[in-house]
Known about the structure:
Helix content is 36%, strand content 25%. By secondary structure, the protein is α+β, with helices and mostly antiparallel strands.
Amino acid sequence: MDPKHVYALAAAQGMSIIETESCTWVQKRRFFLESAPGHRRVRLRPGEAGKLFLRGVMALRYTCDENEGAPSFEYVCTDRNFGLESLASDARRRVRRGLEACDVRRIDCDLLRREGRAINCDVFERQGRAKWGFLTEQSAWDHYTKVCSTLPNMEAYGAFVQGRLIAYSLGVFVEDYCYLFHTHAFSDFLRYSPINALTFTVMKSALCRPTVSCVSQGFESFRSLPDVERFKLSMGFFKRPIGRRVLINPIALPAFLGPGAWLTHEFVKKFKPGLADDFSAFVQSIQSRVVNTRSQQSQHHAHSGSQNEFGATRSPVSPEGRELRSARKLPSGDPVNDG
């Protein structure tokens, strides 16, 4: 995907883009930046994070080599011969049922614009999530799907029962990756296993292409949802090790620790309940692993024999702020990637 298409997709989701020397960042939440695309390994240059902190950024999260960050993983499938035999027995049964009950095919974004938002709202209600953002607000959804229709490396798939769209999924192609986004289905039709059928169809279509080496179902997340993990593993994904780093602006650190974290959560909850839940999950998983980077920087340099920020093999640190090393955690979202 051309960089301009990445920017257009991020903007359509209400996110802004920041380019630095080493990385492209997307602002999924205000003041919080994440590296994009997620599979690229990032090595920040000295002072790069500090410049972002001076611009008001509170936290950075990015992917790095496995030995340069907190151990983590991404859910991927790289099977060139992907098919029904690649699935666990229960997933195979569900995919067969879904393909028999549903007509699964490519769809255009105009149909998605007209009928997809109702599916999103139903999913959010089923999951107990606040209905705000580009997936559930009509004008934002209209704009998002209009932008999607202009992107050459995005494909929409739908599952139909008696001619009605009851589920959909998006495949976004970036470099040699295919990311699965928003695989959503109406609650009343889950008995037909449309999510399994859609996921299988998009995966098989992508992995047949010589330009695609990997299908991704997202990264390890801060919430513990074992059912989601079981779904992904049963559908042929495996956990490929990566490194992940979270850097916190020193000015913002009190908001992530102790009483400050509780006060921040209560304040955010008044305005954005969904964001407050995300913040709480983030804080709970990392606040026990705060590393004072300035106190460990000398040890890091002595061990690595280098001024490179990422020379340490056990406790990589940053001279610009504090790093939060997250505890082990499971993925978040539906039995699919929420994007």
